[in-house]
Structures are given as C-alpha cells and as structure tokens.
Amino acid sequence: MVSHNINNTKTQFLEHQKQKMGLIPVTVVALWYVIVVFVGFPLASNAELDSSFYKNTCPNVSSIVREVVRNVSKKDPRMLASLIRLHFHDCFVLGCDASVLLNNTDTPTKIESEQQAFPNNNSLRGLDVVNQIKTAVENACPGIVSCADILTLAAEVSSVLAGGPDWKVPLGRRDGLTANRTLANQNLPAPFFTLAQLKSAFTAQGLNTTDLVALSGAHTIGRAHCSFINTRLFNFSNSGKPDPTLDTTYLQTLRKTCPNNGPATNIANFDPTTPDTFDKNYYSNLQGKKGLLQSDQELFSTSDADTISIVNTFASNQDAFYESFKASMIKMGNIGVLTGKNGEIRKQCNFINKKSVEFDLASAVPKEVWLAHSK
Ligand code: HEM
User: Which annotated residues bind Ca(2+) 1 (predicted)?
Assistant: First the structure.
C-alpha cells in the first residue's frame, strides 16, 4: 500500500514552488497574487459551466445517460456507487477532465494511466459502463458531449437511482489530454487517513470540512475490499488488537466477512443495514461506531473534532444531508474544469483523439460512428 504522506508531498511542493519563485520576476509574482486574490483560486473556477449547455446540441443527453445507468444497475445495483466514486476519482486528479478514463499509451503521447494508481488498481469499477454511455450519446449527438460531463451526469443519476437527491448538473466540461498516476497516488485520500490528513486532501482541492463530511456520505452505498480494513479488525496501529473505535458486535460481523488473511477479493458493505440505498444511515452508523473505514470513523471519533456536530446534524436530518451533498457534489464537479477551447471532446473515452483515430477507435466504436469521425 502506498504511503499517502500528504505533509511530505506538500513540503516538497512548497520547496519546489520557493525555488521556482526565485527565478520569477517580482512583477509576475504580483500579477499572480492579483489573479488569486481577485479572480479566485484557479482550481475552483467554474464560471463557464451551465446546466443547459447541451440544450440545442444534445437535448436528450441526461435521459440517455439515465437509461444506460438504469439498465446496468438493474443487474448490478452496486454500479451506482461505483459511478459516483469514479467521478470523485476523476475530479481529485487534474480536475474533472476524465483523466481517470485514459488508458496506458506510448504514442503519440506517453500516458501513464491513473487506473493503476494504488487507490484505483483492482478497485475502480464502471469504466465499461461509461463507454456504453458514450456510445449511446455519440449515436444521438456525435462529437458533442465530453466524457468528463458523462462522468458528472452518471454520478448524479446514480444518486437518484439509489434513492438519493437530484440536482441540476452544471455542464460544459471538456476532456483533458493527459493523465497523471503520480498525482492520483498523492491526491486521492487513503482509507487509513486521520482527520487532519483528510481535511488536508480536501483543502488541496478547494473543499472545506462540510464538503468532506457531506461527500463522505456517499459511503452510504457500495462496498470496500477487506484489504482496506484488515488492520482495523486484527492489528490496529501494530497493537495486535482491533481499532478501539469499532463497535465490538460489528467487529465480529466484519471478521466473518473479512477473515484474517482471507481472499483478496472479499468485500464488505459500507452500510450494513441498507447497503444500496442512498440515505443518512452512514452518519447514524458513525454515531454507533460502525464506520467501515478508519477515514469514515475519524469524522465522529476524533476527540473534539468540528466534524462531530456535522455528523450529528446529518444523522438527524436527511434533508440537511441531501442539501449539503448536492452543493458539495456541484463544488467537486467544478474542480479544475477545462472549458472553451481547452482540452477536447474525446471520441472514445479511454484515449485522446489523436490516439483513438490512429489505433483504437476502430475496434472500440461501431463502424459507422468511426467512419463519421474519421472523415
Ligand atoms: C474522504 C475520503 C475518502 C476515502 C479515504 C475513501 C476511500 C474509499 C475506499 C478505500 C473505498 C473502497 C474501494 C474498494 O475497496 O474497491 C471507497 C469506496 C467508495 N467511495 Fe470512497 N473514499 C473517500 C471519499 C469518497 C467520496 C468523496 C466519494 C464520492 C462523493 C466516495 C464514494 C465512494 C463510493 C460510492 C464507494 C463504493 C464504490 C463501489 O462499491 O464500487 N468516496 N472509498
């Protein structure tokens, strides 16, 4: 498992910035200051996104996405959780630009896929569903809708289909031209993070403590591999004992699902009572010491933490949770977006266009779509 040492990374980053600053004239630094102070933190810029972005060019995009996701989730209800997570893992690395969807390639540009980063490897799900959605959308409106917007729409529709809130999804993102595995390892929070580390990972993306607590509520659905909780069950912090913040009855249940040295493919539900329903139970579970990951339980069991009262509010008021979740999902969906002439609209979500036309599109997309694009 990778050591997600945010502090080290941050120190290295700051050191790097200081060295760079030494080479930059004072006027440029001043200009940068003006941009950051008066225009806002660049990562958080979103002015150009608009929920009616495809009104004239692809009016049915939302229902196309919904129908594909609905069909898939009939057979695989967990897919709703997987698609929400996919959007999160996209946005925390280079912004919401569908970088997470890019496969490894050598030419024309070398791309080290984020899919093999530690938090994603053997864990990310839904890549094939996104391709299915993209094919359906391309059939209706070729070359119009970005893969980044598809990920965002799929996350919203997944919330709704799991019984959670709906919201108007700001659209108009464009797809990035590269991926970054190193950043994926650095930016994505780990299940063994302390509250301070979690906050730091979210702050780095322009997200605050309420965003952290609200977005963690997505863990009201879905599953986690036993490998992410094994030390909590058997040898927490090398103590030879389980995590003391874990309810003892729940501990016994989890040990049955996740025996010591059990198969690597074993998984446990995040929410033991309503595993596929998007409700506020995540928060009452935390109150009952039934958070699955250490990072979940940290939100309630860290002494004197400011997150405790937020957990209590969401546990007692589902509307409050939904309102915050919607707002935080929109905020997360705005991270580092590419708009206007930046990036591109990928033809096939797993490859940048140059690559897909040269090598891969023919096998991945129906012939007529490929022919239409290669003209
Ligand atoms: C706060 C820090 C977070 C940490 C440390 C974390 C960590 C994890 C881990 C370790 C898993 C299990 C993956 C596996 O076993 O394959 C997981 C699953 C999941 N995460 Fe998170 N996560 C965090 C935040 C979020 C956020 C912000 C969202 C979305 C808004 C999210 C949505 C999900 C969902 C829905 C699943 C279940 C996926 C499935 O069943 O396929 N997580 N997370």
Answer: 90, 93, 95, 97, 99, 114
Half-sphere exposure of 104 (CA within 13 A, CB side): 5
Testing ligand 1's pocket by substitution, the residue of 219, 258, 292 carrying the most ligand atoms inside 8 A of its CB is 219
Q: Which domain holds residue 314?
A: 190-331
Residue 225 bears catalytic tag: no
Name the pTM for this structure.
0.86
E strand spans, 277-323: none
**Ligand 1 contact via 352 beta carbon (within 6 Å):** no
Write the DSSP symbol of residue 100: G
Question: Does the beta carbon of 200 lie inside 6 Å of ligand 1?
Answer: no
The mean of the pLDDT values for the chain is: 87
Task: Give the Cα separation of 35 and 369 in Å (integer).
Answer: 43
Q: Would you say the CB of residue 310 lies under 6 angstroms from ligand 1?
A: no
Q: How many CA atoms lie within 13 A of 169 on its CB side?
A: 27
Q: What is the pLDDT of residues 187-235, one digit of tens each?
A: 999 999 999 999 999 999 999 999 999 999 999 999 999 999 999 999 9
CATH number at residue 362: 1.10.520.10
Phi first, then psi: what are they for 175, rounded to 5°? -90, 140
* Exposed / middle / buried, residue 112 (Cβ in 10 Å: 0-12, 13-18, 19+): middle
* Calpha distance 347→360 (Å, rounded): 11
150, 65 contact by CB (below 8 A): yes
Does residue 172 share a domain with residue 77?
Answer: yes
User: How far apart, in whole angstroms, are the C-alpha atoms of residue 77 and residue 74?
Assistant: 6
Together in a domain, 303 and 351: no
CA 165 to chain centre: 17
The identity of residue 43, as a single letter, is: L
Q: Which entry of 4, 16, 89, 373 is annotated as an active-site residue? A: 89
**CA atoms of 316 and 284, how far apart (whole Å):** 8
Determine the distance from the C-alpha atom of residue 147 to the mean position of all C-alpha atoms in its chain, rounded to a whole number: 14
Give yes or no: residues 201 and 297 share one domain. yes
